[in-house]
Structures are given as C-alpha cells and as structure tokens.
C-alpha cells in the first residue's frame, strides 16, 4: 500500500480586484474601511422602466489596459474583468513574469454565476433584428461560464488544473475552495482563483426585478439602498467586477520569498436541499458548513474572530444567515464581529466570494474589520454584532467567508493568520 501524500499548507500571496471603486486591492480596501458606498444610479443603459434603478458599476474600467484590445473585443465583459483581476493579483504577488513558473503546476479556477450575460443580450438582439447571419462567430465561446478560466490561462500560460465553477452567488467561493484542495493535495503549486461577473445589463435587471429580488425603495438615494441586516432592507443591489487571489503552497511561496497575507485552512460546500431561491429558514446546511471549516482547521469555534457574511440585504437571506451563525457557534455567535461589505460594493453574484475572501485576508493582515453600512434600525431577527456603520480595529486571527447561491448552494472558507 502506497504512503499517503502529506497535505500541503496553502497561503494567499496576491489579491486582484475590479469593483465599482476602480481597479486594485488597495483602492478597494481604503474605500471599504472608509465606509464609502460604490453604489449609484445605473448609467450603462436606460433604467427608466425598471423598478430597481441603482447598481455598483465599473464605470471607468478599460479592458485594453490588461489585454490586447482586439482580444478584449472578442470576449465578454465578465472575461475582461477576470483577466484584469488576475493580472492585478499576479502583480500584487510579485510575479511579473509567469513564464518563470512551472506551467504544468500553475492552474486557474475562476467561476461565474451567469457568464456572458451581455453577450447573450446583444447577440439575441442581433438575431431577432437582423437574422441568424448577424450573430457573431464568437458568441458561444464568449458567453459560456467556463471561458474566463480558459482565457486567463491562455493569457498567463497556465497549463495546470483549469475549469469553471457555476454555483450562482457561491461560484467564486467554491472556486477558491476547489483551488485550495488542488494545492493541498499536491496537484498544483500555484493557482489563480476567484470569481467574475458582469450582469448589470438590461436583461439581468429585467430578470432580477421580475423576481422582486432587488431593492426598489431607495432609488432616490442610491448609496443607502443596500442595507444588510437592517430592518428597512428590501432587496439586494447588483454589482459587477471580479476578485481573484493568488494561492500557493506554503513551500512554493516561501521558496520564492513571497509576502503572505494569510493561510487558507478550511473549505466546505453543502446544500440546503430546500428551495431554488430561498435559503433554508433554519440554516442547517450553512451552519454545518461553518462547523466543518472550523473542524478542518483544527481550531475551536471560539477562535473565530470575524465572519464576512453573505448578507445580501434581502429580508430572507439576512435573517436565515443569522440563524445559521447561531447554529454553528452557539453563544460565541454574539461575541463575533459579523459584517457584510455588500452595503458598499453591491452584490457581485458569482464574483462575491472573490472580493469577500480578499476582505477576510486584508482584515487578518491589518487588524481592521470593514463595517456594515446603512445599518440604521436593528431587526429583532438579526441580533448579532454587525459592526454597524464604522470600521473596527481588532486583532483578527481567524476569519470566515460565507456565500450562498440559488439552488441551495453554500460555500464557506476559513482563513487564519500564518503562524
């Protein structure tokens, strides 16, 4: 019988973000700590007839800064975001020349909840207005939800593990978790992992508005529209962008003298098996996921300092996630700092886990926890410490990131300070 392969420790060495704040992790982090909202009235299309009129758009994004302009035009906006965030993450990790990496042990896992929404919309319009010959030959490869991983791999020369995870708003978190497992199990030395989404489109808004999932009460005051855990919340605010991390085995990172943000020490994926859009009111499976990552990390529940909650600002999610946290942590739930940064970034759907995992890594690095903004009136059903309205300085040794997706998908990651 062969010897069991020793599990590798996995660390984060680079962070790349594209959000409504602009491009780059420090701009992202500075705005979050300042409690600045990145939400405004939607400007990319005529929002007049839509019940929800606000969003977190990447209005200044220029794909040509990160890839050949001709290639950029052949790809959907969500893929452009993924390439940009990947290049920013590599730069942050101090990797200027990827050709020096072992390409066969360099992988990419970048998920998306929807994929090329803008491509679907524009090419459908071409079909109905001009007939089938007007449809672009690049339509199919542009819209499919795995293509971001493929294009990023082509751009950076990564021949290792590569696929696209689609689990709605848990996609980015699952991608980081699966990359963590590839590294831990010795299948790779270094991975780009996270999520990307570009669904702020007419079609995207029409669909979510028809579901009555998006906020409609604060159109006249966009920066207050996303209010996680607040009693006045009435729906989520859509954001767009990408969050990509550089993950490495500890051995690989140390060998090249990398600066390390923190260690990834736990990952769990569960399913509510309850409803296609509503979370389980009892939060059983999400609670299990949180208990699983604590156990995998070899720590006690009381060691967890901070949870970056899914916290979408919808009536059901925030209430049910609160229940799940209580189930997982018991009395310690009331001693945890819990915040949702979606009050500032909006909900980036499949990219949420990428940017929110970055928040956990930065909170550990700096000992600063971003606030839940627009928290004005407590909800009796949401009775935890949500770090209301102002960032908090506190030592963060262990942080958890939760993300949930339509279909009942739950993904939870645990990050801890490297010791």
UniProtKB/TrEMBL annotation:
Gene3D superfamilies: 3.40.47.10. It holds the Pfam family Ketoacyl-synt_C. SMART domains: PKS_KS. It is found in: Cell inner membrane. Pathway: Lipid metabolism; fatty acid biosynthesis. This is 3-oxoacyl-[acyl-carrier-protein] synthase 2. It catalyses: a fatty acyl-[ACP] + malonyl-[ACP] + H(+) = a 3-oxoacyl-[ACP] + holo-[ACP] + CO2; (9Z)-hexadecenoyl-[ACP] + malonyl-[ACP] + H(+) = 3-oxo-(11Z)-octadecenoyl-[ACP] + holo-[ACP] + CO2.
